[in-house]
Design a protein that fits this description.
mainly alpha, about 80% helix
Length: about 140
């Protein structure tokens, strides 16, 4: 089961990395973490032997006592759940910060262009002897 989820995670990472044009690494990492988690949930809900091995009622018997095995699996599942939550949170936080940065940069650029136009208009209207090299161009 773990090997299959690992192979799926690697395949997902590569597929998303090669497919995405923007945010390649971010999308690939998020997909490579979230998809195996979703598949693990599906396996827990649909495979009776796998579910039974977690509760200690079936599959995977042996030398390890049931309570210890259940505690270990539960702690691994909880840890993986928090890894998924963290990755998804960082994915959306990075996307939001990118949009905020783009908006702030666009506003700053527009403000600077207005300031340049005002400065040029004042320089021209003052009629001073300013060389053309001092005047800023507003593209």
């Amino acid at each position: 089961m773990a090997i299959q989820l690992g192979v799926i995670a690697i395949a997902t990472f590569l597929a998303l990395y090669l497919r995405e044009s923007d945010n390649r690494v971010r999308a690939a990492l998020a997909g490579a973490v979230v998809l195996p988690f979703v598949l693990l949930i599906v396996d827990l809900l649909t495979l009776p032997d796998f579910r039974g091995s977690l509760t200690g009622t079936g599959g995977g018997g042996g030398a390890i006592e049931t309570g210890a095995r259940l505690d270990f699996v539960q702690s691994m599942f909880d840890t993986f759940k928090w890894v998924v939550v963290t990755v998804v949170a960082f994915y959306f936080a990075a996307e939001a910060s990118e949009k905020v940065t783009t908006t702030v940069q666009a506003e700053k650029t527009a403000r600077v262009k207005d300031e340049v136009r005002i400065a040029q208009a004042q320089a021209v209207s003052s009629g001073g002897n300013l060389p053309s090299s001092v005047l800023l161009t507003a593209d």
